[in-house]
Amino acid sequence: MIWEYRELDAHKLVNGRKRQLLVDTGGRLWAAQVHAANASDGPVAKPLVSDILWYGERVETVFGDGGYGGEFAKELANWGVDFERVSRPESTHGLVPVAKRRVVERSIAWTNFFRRIVKDYEFTLSSSVAWLLLGNTQIMLQRIDRKSKI
Questions:
Q1: Which domains does the chain have, with CATH numbers?
Q2: Which of 5, 91, 115, 128 can pair with 34 through a Cys bridge, CB separation 3.0 to 4.6 Å?
Q3: Burial of 75 (0-12, 13-18, 19+ CB in 10 A)
């Protein structure tokens, strides 16, 4: 197999991979997971629970969309971490920005400045994760440099 773990997402009609990102409220990337696009978000994100637990008592609540409400939320509940579903109010129509969800979307947008991340050029899942982490490291270093010049 030339490309490792590439499949078709039947809902979005996209062939490739999905990324699961674990970010804090400031948008900093703490962990990432890459998997085939045909897998559901909740069950595939369960390995991220160990990354969440690694941070210990500091993590009280994890925010996510409806796709994470099943198995992922149950796995978090087993470890005493609350899961809160973040979505737009049902009474609204059209595009409504949701503050907690915007943090993750903003982090994804920041990583889209890197050519190796915008398109999935990587052969292996581990190299895809490594490039996500390297891109985020670059973003954090630029923030530090910008603040030191002020």
A1: 7-149 (3.30.420)
A2: 128
A3: buried
